[in-house]
Write a structure and sequence with these properties.
The complex is a heterodimer of chains A (264) and B (261).
Chain A: H1 2-17, H2 20-44, H3 55-86, H4 89-92, H5 99-128, H6 138-166, H7 169-183, H8 195-202, H9 205-219, H10 227-258
Helix pairs in contact in A: 1-5, 2-3, 3-5, 3-6, 3-7, 3-9, 6-9, 6-10, 9-10
Chain B: E1 2-13, E2 28-39, E3 43-47, H1 54-62, E4 69-74, E5 77-78, H2 83-89, E6 90-93, H3 106-116, H4 121-134, H5 150-162, E7 168-172, H6 180-195, E8 199-203, H7 207-213, E9 216-221, E10 224-230, H8 236-260
Parallel strand pairs in B: 3-8, 3-9, 6-7, 7-8
Antiparallel strand pairs in B: 1-2, 1-4, 4-5, 9-10
Chain lengths: 264, 261
């Protein structure tokens, strides 16, 4: 398994190195975003403290972690989409390595890259603009991170299943992503939403992932007070992971029957 | 011992409904009621015009497609219920020119697929060098896949299929874009693999190629077996006459059907 993971990471690294300009542009984009958030928080002023947190830190953790998770989810869909368009999908899905493993390992490579970007984004945001984390709970934040990755992988499998089935899954994901951006409390606390929308927001696992990550990193909350969010995240993991695996497996089986495995 | 068995296999393709066309279109049979057995170590050639079902047959063996009815068995494993076991046995050189990562070199592509094909890291380097040499790709091993010619791409597809040293090798028009020297090299390779006990199924339009490598020939027409013959020794003339005879048999049958209806 480790050998296969290395092979996939090597493939992605080599490809990224040979697309140097795209990687540099992504870094420049992240830097511009950080600067925009800093000046937005400065313009709003220090009196606005969502859930008792400094607004710039609230934004950096929220947008950084949200972007990490959404890019992770998207990487599943992208893996399938690129393989369909590049003509490698049929071959990848008929190696002795089970298709769900190929997909997860491909996404793992993307998660590692995005995870590193998240840490750099967070670190750069806090260091460059001289912000400090208030007694962060690193153990709890790692736990939240891992649970959120499992949830993102499960949703990613469903996105990949959608891509296999309709070959235009990115459109559906874009629509859902736009709604999630509003509802998960990335830019502002969900307490500011109407009550009925707060109910919908609580059904989205990313809302709980962002809440838990902010609590762990910014509030310095004792682990006990994170229990509720951790329990919710665990429940989402247990429910979504089998669903993700089943939906991808069903979608592949259907494509093999309908002869659409190579369609794009 | 049979390496591959088809039991009354049907494969139907249905066109998707479009928003403005609600009625389901007529299903088209890609493969219709095919039963056959392929002996281990033999070379079977699939012959037939475009759309006759040759590639579909190969894809059914490789698990890229699943049958709608009937069963396909590879060394006794059902492609539907034991797909992973089947994939360990089967190497497939597909004919398309877009099945590699364009920004990786030929060697890097082979290394990547070798890992997914369960070829251990210790074996990989030597095996890749050996296969690159056998397929005439050594000089192009460090060239990015996107810069390979059609012929090189085709050789790379064959090299990938050989990587896991499978007992069943499927070749879809393997010499279509190759010059005569390279085509001859691939034919010699097929003969050598057959001598080593590998079962080879080859789809081709090239009579000379079939004459040189095949033990038996299956003529397909509109997804059905039009004729199956073990021709020994296989010769270009024998295949020509077999092809003409098979085509004539189908025309005859079609005339009978038309006259009855």
């Amino acid at each position: 398994m480790a050998d296969k993971a290395m092979a996939l990471m090597r493939r992605d690294l080599l490809t990224a190195m040979r697309y140097r300009s795209a990687s540099l542009l992504a870094l420049a984009g992240a830097a511009a975003e950080l600067a925009a958030f800093y000046y937005l928080a400065k313009a709003i002023g220090p009196s606005f403290r969502p859930e008792g947190m400094d607004y710039f830190s609230f934004l950096v953790v929220g947008t950084g972690f949200y972007t990490f998770l959404v890019m992770g989810i998207h990487s599943f869909l992208q893996t399938v989409e690129e393989a369909q368009q590049g003509g490698t999908f049929e071959v990848l899905m008929t190696t002795p390595t089970p298709p769900s493993i190929v997909l997860c390992l491909s996404a793992l490579s993307a998660f590692s890259r995005n995870g590193l970007q998240f840490v750099i984004y967070l670190g750069a945001g806090l260091l460059l603009f001289k912000q400090r984390l208030q007694s962060p709970q690193l153990g709890a934040s790692v736990l939240v991170f891992l649970l959120a990755v499992v949830i993102a992988m499960a949703i990613g499998m469903m996105a990949a299943a959608l891509q296999v089935a309709i070959q235009k899954g990115s459109v559906v994901l874009w629509v859902l992503g736009s709604g999630a951006w509003l509802l998960t409390g990335t830019l502002f606390p969900i307490a500011d939403l109407p009550r009925w929308l707060q109910g919908a927001a609580n059904l989205i696992p990313l809302t709980h992932a962002l809440n838990a990550m902010r609590s762990a990193l910014l509030e310095g909350t004792a682990r006990a007070s994170l229990h509720q969010e951790l329990a919710v995240l665990t429940a989402f993991c247990l429910f979504l992971m089998p669903l993700g695996l089943l939906s991808f497996s069903y979608s592949l089986q259907r494509a093999r029957l309908h002869g659409t495995l190579s369609s794009y | 011992m049979d390496a591959i068995v088809f039991e009354s296999v049907n494969k139907v393709f249905r066109r998707h409904r479009t928003p403005f066309k609600r009625a389901a279109s007529e299903p088209s049979f890609a493969v219709r009621d095919i039963s056959l057995k392929i002996t281990s170590g033999s070379v079977l050639a699939l012959l037939g015009e475009n759309g006759s079902g040759k590639t579909t047959l190969l894809k059914l063996i490789s698990t890229m497609l699943l049958p709608d009815q009937g069963r396909v068995l590879v060394h006794g494993s059902d492609t539907r219920t034991h797909a992973q076991q089947v994939r360990r046995h089967v190497g497939f050189a597909i004919s398309g020119e877009r099945s590699f990562f364009p920004r990786l070199t030929a060697r890097e592509n082979l290394e990547f697929f070798a890992a997914l094909d369960d070829v251990g890291p210790k074996l990989r380097r030597d095996r890749i060098a050996n296969i690159l040499a056998r397929t005439g790709l050594l000089d192009a091993s460090d060239v990015l896949a996107m810069h390979l010619s059609s012929g090189m791409y085709q050789k790379l597809a064959i090299a990938r299929a050989l990587m896991k040293q499978s007992s069943v090798l499927l070749l879809d028009e393997p010499t279509r874009s190759l010059d005569s020297a390279a085509a001859s090299q691939i034919r010699t390779l097929v003969q050598a693999l057959s001598a080593e006990g590998v079962t080879v199924v080859i789809a081709s339009h090239n009579f000379e190629e079939i004459a040189e490598v095949a033990d038996s020939v299956l003529l397909l027409r509109r997804g059905q077996v039009a004729a199956a013959h073990h021709i020994s020794p296989v010769s270009t003339e024998a295949i020509h006459s077999f092809h003409l005879k098979g085509t004539a048999e189908i025309r005859e049958a079609a005339c009978v059907v038309e006259s009855v209806s």
